[in-house]
Design goal:
Blueprint lengths: L4 H7 L5 E3 L3 H11 L5 E3 L4 H5 L4 E2 L12 E2 L2 E6 L2 E7 L16 H13 L4
Parallel strand pairs: 1-2
Antiparallel strand pairs: 3-4, 5-6
């Protein structure tokens, strides 16, 4: 992910990573993986609720979260304009949302394509 941060910056977008984990847990995770983007804590699911991101209560780790497991989602904005949205819908086939997410490279490629499209 670190090698892609310059590519995202070049496009004028910055991923914001959001987790239901505590700020301290996120800080440790961010350091461990050397994640170059902001990792925000959404323990009360206010952000997830605002953007319609589903909460899974069937995910194996759902019990360790206040109100369930926030499904993986990627929302990319350029200023106030949405550029890319991916929201994982929970099912047994994707391990209740934990599998089959787009990679940072895949997201970057789609964002590049969308920003290259003529404005309508």
């Amino acid at each position: 992910m670190k090698e892609l941060s310059a590519d995202y910056a070049e496009l004028g977008v910055e991923p914001l990573l959001i987790s239901a984990d505590s700020p301290e847990s996120n800080r440790r995770f961010q350091q461990k993986l050397a994640i170059p983007f902001p990792l925000l804590s959404d323990e009360d699911h206010a952000v997830a609720d605002r953007y319609g991101i589903p909460i899974s209560r069937k995910h194996p780790k759902a019990w360790s979260y206040q109100d369930g497991f926030i499904q993986p989602a990627v929302l990319v904005y350029k200023g106030e304009a949405p550029v890319y949205t991916f929201v994982q819908q929970p099912s047994m086939l994707n391990l209740w949302g934990a599998a089959r997410r787009p990679t940072p490279r895949e997201v970057l490629d789609v964002v590049r394509e969308k920003l290259a499209e003529p404005a309508s």
